[in-house]
Amino acid sequence: MKKKSIQLVSHGQFEDSFIDTIAEDIAREFNAEIKTEECHADLNAFYAPSRRQYDANKLIRFLEEQSETKALKIICLCQVDLFIPILTYIFGQAVYKGKTAIASIYRLKNEPYGMKSDDDLVLDRFRKVVIHELGHTFGLVHCQVPSCVMRSSTYVEDLDQKKIHLCKHCRNHMETLFE
Amino acid sequence: MSKKVSLLIVDDEESVRDSLYNWFIEDGYDVDCADSAKAALTLIESNHYDIILADIKMPGMDGLEMHRRIKSINKDTIVIVMTAFASVETAVQALKDGAYDYVTKPFDPDDLSHLIRNATSQIQLKSENEALKNKLISLDNIEDIVGHSDIMIKVLQEVESVAQSNSSVIITGESGTGKELIARAIHFNSPRKFFPMVSVHCGALSESLLESELFGHEKGAFTGAMFNRKGRFEMADGGTIFLDEIATISPKMQIELLRVLESKTFMRVGGNKEIKSDFRVICATNRDLKKLVENGIFREDLYYRLNVVNIIVPPLRQRTDDIPLLVNHFLKKYCTSMSRDLISIDPAALKRLQEYDFPGNVRELENMIERAIVIGNGKQITLKDLPLERNSIGSSYKSLDELEKKYILEILNKHDWNISRSARALKVDRVTLYNKIKKYNLKSLK
Predict the structure, then answer these.
(1) How far is B15 from chain A (nearest CA, A)?
(2) Catalytic one among A133, A157, A175, A179?
(3) Cα–Cα distances in Å, from B126 out to B24, B131, B303?
(4) Where are the domains of chain B?
(5) Cβ of B107 and A93 within 8 Å?
(6) Is A6 on the interface with B (CB under 8 A)?
(7) Which of A67, A128, A177, B43 has the fewest CB atoms in 10 Å of its CB?
(8) Inter-chain touch A89–B109, beta carbons under 8 Å
(9) pTM
(10) For B6-126, which CATH class?
């Protein structure tokens, strides 16, 4: 079967090894071919001064408009604090059954929660957010299985509770949807 | 049998609607959006929503007014009001009007998840509560099936074997034999027992009333239909619907019923939305349905659809061995409910009861015992407390022919329709008995 193609767009400074690890995760979980790309766009247009955050919906629309790739899905990894109008913050956002998703590392770090810095833990959380948001673009909804990566997570502690993989049910469902 | 929770988001800001829509779709809910109170009310008129998230400040009609109108359409819908401007007055007013909760925009993602999860649990608790209530009310009735006679044990064995399946059942028997109790026994021994058993007495309702009773109706479907109403088929979702006196339904309703039984979908009267329901159907009748089919009164296709299993409940005169047990059962029941000491029955009175033919069956016996407790001396039921003085084999016959017909039928049933033995018992020859059977058009119920 021909592999799906997923474009990974990074914005801001990420170490190469960091991006490589995430790319491997995506390739494994979605049986996909990954293309990485750096983006240097000015994000000021998406900044909401009253909230001191970046509008994820506008960013997603921008990504869709700018993208020239033929990839099946695009996910943007960024470092800014994201919001959608109705929620105070989000870790990531996706167009359900769409093409584009976005994930931010901003709220995944330990320090703002008064805990010791832990780079490995941050990477682990970010990998889960990325897989989760891409799952939505493939048509997966939130899963009730506690260890499934598609389980809804509103706190970083929720992210730490789940694993990085799709559960059997979500995997089967995704394959059905994709077929 | 669990359904997806449906949500309606009402907000004049597109970005808010889109954000919430995405959030809930990803959470696996069925979601619709409306950009104004007016649009929302139009949607609510034609669709069912479990939860409505409505902005309080909107042009035209505000959220509070819309909330009042929603409640007048469907009081069970959970309404959560949202606002960007927190004010104690509006919050208090919304809650006073029956809103489930009040939230300030933007929400914390976790608060929003909690809020919807709590509202969803309330919906589930409510439906479980209704199902359990029905179960509790009905369980008492199971104890009312009393009888150790062979014929009754055979009926209960049939109940046991049919209960586990999903097949339609017709229960046939004379009036007062306890057909509804048998239906309850089937339901409460089936996998559907945790869901409601809904009874409809078809004979007591006119065609239009029966239609609205079975299928429900939408507000304004007819004069006096001020609110939407769930039909019995909808209420029986997951459980059993019991249609008593099925032989009385009109030809039009027979067609409707056949269609519903085949598709398990229907529309409320005056509605245009198809509703699905997973129910099992049990019918009861005191008529010979097959004969009604032959006479063109009852549809043949409906008869075969319903008559997957047929259970025949015997009349009391065919199980006279059960009369002492039934008498004791009713004595206990009514002495307890009237807060009296338990009384006994005079053996002579009991013997007389066993000789009586009980045209009204168990129901007649029950009423007789209740009456005897009320008018008796409070210690023992004697012959004079029982309304049996007139005739030991019944006094309600209009003619000698009727008496003869009943007596011959009784003897035939007693001997399992064995003509030779029945003729011997009647002290007539077999030809005479054949002629009498032909004359009175007698048929075995089996």
Answers:
(1) 6
(2) A133
(3) 22, 9, 36
(4) 6-126, 143-312, 317-385, 400-439
(5) no
(6) no
(7) A177
(8) yes
(9) 0.49
(10) alpha beta
d(CA B99, CA B66): 11
| pLDDT of residue B141 exceeding 50 | no
Q: Is A1 on the interface with B (CB under 8 A)?
A: no
Q: Which residues are registered as beta bridge partners of B172?
A: B285, B312
**Which of A53, A59, A86 should be substituted to probe chain B, the one whose Cβ sees the most B Cβ atoms within 10 Å?**
A86
Contact B26 A94 (CB under 8 A): yes
Tell me whether residues A154 and B27 touch, CB distance under 8 A: no
- What tokens were used for B99? 């809103």
B19 with A57: Cβ contact below 8 A: yes
Q: Which fold has domain A4-178?
A: Collagenase (Catalytic Domain) (3.40.390)
Fold assignment, B400-439: Arc Repressor Mutant, subunit A (1.10.10)
In this prediction, the answer to ipTM > 0.85 reads no
Among residues A154, A9, A8, A10, the alpha carbon closest in space to that of A79 is found at A10
- Structural element, H or E, at residue A73: strand A73-78
CA distance B140 to chain A (A): 38
Spell out which residues of chain A touch residue B10, defining contact as CB-CB under 8 Å: none
Annotation marks residue A65 as catalytic: no
- State how far the Cα of A61 lies from the Cα of B95, in Å rounded to an integer: 38
pLDDT in tens, B7-56: 999 988 888 888 888 888 888 888 999 998 889 888 888 888 889 998 88
CB pair distance less than 8 Å for B106 and A86:
yes
Cα–Cα dist B56/B46, whole Å: 23
Q: Identify the pLDDT of residue B139.
A: 40
pLDDT score of B71 more than 90:
no
CA distance B105 to A93: 18
CATH code for residues B143-312: 3.40.50.300
Residues 289-348 on B with a CB inside 8 Å of A are none
- Say if domain B317-385 classifies as CATH 2.40.30.10: no
pLDDT at position B306:
92
Which tens digits make up the pLDDT trace of A51-92?
899 999 999 999 988 877 788 999 999 999 999 988 889 999
Residues of B in contact with A136 (CB under 8 A): 26
**Nearest-CB residue to B27 (from A93, A152, A155):** A152
User: Given CB atoms, is B2 within the 8 Å cutoff of chain A?
Assistant: no
- Torsion of the alpha carbons at B96, B102, B104 and B105, rounded to the nearest 10: -120
Other CB atoms within a 10 A radius of the CB of residue A160 amount to 12
Quote the CA–CA distance of B418 and B416 in Å, as a whole number: 5
> Could you tell me where the beta strands, DSSP code E, fall in B105-201?
169-172, 197-201
Residues with pLDDT less than 50, chain A: none
Domain limits, chain A: 4-178
